[in-house]
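ok so i was messing around last nite and threw this chain in just to see what happens. nothing serious, just curious
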Amino acid sequence: MSKAYFSQAGEELARGDLRQASEKLWGSAALAVKATACGGKGRRLAGHRELWEYVNKLIEQTGDEELGGLWRTAISMHMNLYEGWAPKEEVESSKEHSQPPRKAGEA
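result:
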């Protein structure tokens, strides 16, 4: 589902609907974090605070500070749904920099 939202973000961008593209990017990131929590420990994350806390835990466990930057990008896209402040270039950049990793053999 996370990858489906990410794909839909591209479709919304192509249509010029920056708010919906932003929301799909946020949804993709939030679902990816939730899936990681559920798959790793069977934990269900229910709200924004729990998402933030889990991302911080992942950063501590992996030492990957880039996760924090990616998460803040996702949060900014969530805010853009409500505010509509981000220009098209920023939404496009957010999509480009938050692309899910491909598995071996995927095109």
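not much to say yet. The helical segments are 2-15, 18-41, 48-62, 66-83, 88-97.
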